[in-house]
Design a protein that fits this description.
alpha+beta; 7-stranded antiparallel β-sheet; 3 helices
Length: 183
């Protein structure tokens, strides 16, 4: 796999290092890892990732069907899978697989999300994430998810905040705390 900064990276279905590469960039691990492989990366510009929709795995429950239509992948799982792809793009050239050190990617906001079609179990999700702007500590992304030739999800903007782990560590005494005034 080509990992030279700024150059497109293409992986193949038989690339056994794909999961290892993903987990070297982001801290997610199975069963919370919702990206199966990265197909294409143009660092700082665009990423295409795949995920097979699994509504039978741990933590996933199919939503209610609508009449004769079978249940589909829950919106939360669909959006989380796309968001992990966004984190991969944002952090591809500045990987941090450890949430206890370095810069941690936090969801700062999401807007203009449109779910256009249900996702049946077993569907291959194709997430395309495009970088809108990289401000260093804040990254703006946009994109879609398709199943076959049908767009099932549009994300107008997902904003990531990259913050040093030490400012998020309660043991360091730098995070906001609350107290119970009744004691």
């Amino acid at each position: 796999m080509n990992t030279h900064p700024g150059k497109p990276v293409t992986t193949s279905a038989g690339d056994s290092a794909t999961t290892a590469r993903i987990t070297s960039v982001i801290p997610h691990r199975p069963p919370a890892l919702l990206v199966d492989r990265v197909v294409t990366v143009e660092p700082g510009r665009r990423l295409v990732a795949h995920r097979t929709a699994d509504t039978t795995g741990p933590g996933f429950h199919p939503g209610p069907g609508d009449g004769d239509r079978p249940p589909g992948l829950p919106l939360g799982a669909l959006l989380e899978s796309w968001a992990q792809s966004a984190v991969l793009l944002a952090c591809w050239e500045r990987p941090n697989p450890d949430v206890l050190a370095g810069d941690v990617a936090l969801l700062a906001g999401v807007r203009d999300v449109r779910v256009l079609a249900p996702v049946p179990p077993g569907s291959l999700l194709v997430h395309e994430v495009r970088m809108v702007r990289d401000l260093g500590a804040t990254v703006l992304t946009t994109g879609t998810t398709t199943v076959g030739d049908r767009t099932v999800l549009e994300v107008g903007q997902l904003t990531l905040a990259l913050r040093p782990a030490e400012v998020l560590d309660p043991a360091a005494g730098t995070t906001a705390t609350t107290t119970d005034e009744r004691s």
